[in-house]
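Case study 2.
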Amino acid sequence: MKKNKLVGTILGLWVFVIALLVGKVVYDDVKKVNNPASVDKSIPFNAVVGNIDEKNEKEEEDKTDNKTQNKEALNNEKADNEESKIDNEIALVNPKDVNDNREKVLVKEIYGTKIYDEITYALKNGEKVKTSSKRIVDASNYNASLNDLVNEALILINNNESIYKEVLDYTNLYRNEVNVSKLTIDSKLNILATIRALEMAYSNNFSHTRLDGTNCTKLAKELGISFKVMGENIAYGYKNSLSVSKGWKNSKGHYANMINASYNKIGIGLFNFNGNIYWVQIFSD
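Prediction:
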């Protein structure tokens, strides 16, 4: 009897212990769910999955955008290449009229000399757009006669008389600075000097040596001019009488002619050709 009572007591204690253990487990689970601090110590699983999904969606969206952008870039590049190809094809059209995007347009022909404007174009969408131009002189067939040049020289002398006077005055000023007597202007030397300006311009030969290998002294003889000594100054591109006179003065050889006491006469010539002025001084005794 006592034995049975002891067994019953032991079983009751075991039931009580088991009940206590079960109650603690339930309490801990409830506490864990309701305590925010416990949740913050770990990463919510569902939220992680949700972030991964958002990330994947973002990556897919970016990937799609990149594909779209790359496709647009490829299309634009292809279009640019096609446009360049078209422009290059246009540049080859009518090679007789357009040579490397340049054209030569005849402006004037005189004494066999041809004056062209060489025009450079940019070709855009089949249209020629002028970008620059320059004047070209082809004097390979220059054939002016002495009579041609004399007649034109007389006209120029009449039109430029005041400028000739200015050049004379500057030259005599320089001579006066070194106590050399003044020069007097000579009409025949004016014709000679003006013809020299004309033939240098029309023959595209800026030089004391003429196309036939002679110089101004031969031309003087052809014009019936007598002399014992003769000198010539030439210049190109100066805009007025003062600048060209200073240019000659600042050049040792030209200045020597201007102040040479062996000379007592001067002829002056100028010719504006294509916007550039050819200047000539002829000195004689």
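Confidence is low (pLDDT under 50) at residues 24-74, 77-99.
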